[in-house]
Every structure is written in structure tokens, then in C-alpha cells.
Amino acid sequence: MQFETLLATLIGGFVIGFLAQRTRTCFIGGVRDYYLVRDSYLMKGAISFLLSALMAFLILRLSIGAPNWPWIFSKALLPIPGSPLSSMDIAGKVPLHIHLALAMIGGFGIGLFSVLAGGCPLRQHVMASEGNKSSMAYLLGFYVAAIAFHAFMLPIISQVLGW
């Protein structure tokens, strides 16, 4: 790995972590607080975080030679050439209803378990770095489940769908 890439990643991680810790950013908490007590403080942070991520992604796409501006939104969701996702060409191989079903199941699962855990994965990372042991246990389970899925379920799904 190049030194500049590692340095940029560390600096970006420290900046995002600092801002997330200081502002108590939590995506699930923002939705929860807005609907329960009409407090939009966390929701504003989540929306600004998402908008800044979208702008950074679009700037990155424009800087690597993406098509002209009117077409940027149709091409913006394609993987960046040379990235790990660029080798996963699944467009057209998986039907749309499977994509939608997986997105709904995943969104429901993440939302439900984030509410039960007291915050989204970003908030759990921040609380774990502050020394919260229950957040550390949550993240341990989170990573073990991700590793188990990629090791055991992904090959089965790939074989069934013919990837």
C-alpha cells in the first residue's frame, strides 16, 4: 500500500471520528429522536454527513474523468476503475427484485438491531473508542457475522445465482 494512501486514510478517519464523537452523530438515533420527540439535532448531522459524502463521491468521480455533468448521476453509481468493487460486475446478472428484497431485508435488520443496540454502527464505533464495553461486544459480533457471511454464505449465494 502506498504511504500517501495510508496517510490520507488515517487523516480522513481521524477527522470523521473527531466530528462524529464531538457531534454525537448517529443515523438511527436521528430518525428515532425526530419521530419520538421531534428533536432534529441528530437528524441534521446525519443529513449533512450524507450530503458531504455524496459531494465527495461526485467530486472524486469528476476528478477521475467521469462523463460530463448531465450524465454524472447515471454513471456515478458505477464502481471506480481499479477499486475492489470494479471486479464485481453483477449488473444484469441479478434480477431487480432480488436487489430490492436484499436491500429491504438488510435495511430492516440494520435498523432494528441498531435501535436495540442504542445506535448505528458509526455510533457504536465511537462509543467503543470511548471505552464502552457493550459497544465493543456489539462490534465484535458485527465483525464476526460479516466474516462468517463472506466465508460461508457468499460462496453459496454466488453458486446459486451463477456469479
Give a short summary of the structure.
The protein has 163 residues and is mostly helical. It is 73% helix and 0% strand.
Q: Which helices and strands, and how do they pair?
A:
Elements: H1 3-23, H2 27-37, H3 41-63, H4 72-75, H5 96-117, H6 121-129, H7 133-161
Helix pairs in contact: 2-3, 6-7
Biggest sheet record: none
Net shape: globular
Uncertain runs are: none
Name the structural class.
mainly alpha
Computed CA radius of gyration, to the nearest angstrom: 18 Å
Tell me what portion of residues adopts beta-strand conformation.
under 5%
Indicate the percent of residues in helices.
over 70%
* Run of helices and strands: HHHHHHH
How far apart the termini lie comes to: 29 Å
Number of helices: 7
Average pLDDT metric: 78
- How many domains? The number is 2
Number of strands: 0
Account of the protein in words:
The chain is mainly α and 163 residues long. It has 2 domains: 1-79, no CATH class; 90-163. The protein has 7 helices and no strands. Helix 2 (27-37) runs antiparallel to helix 3 (41-63). It is globular.
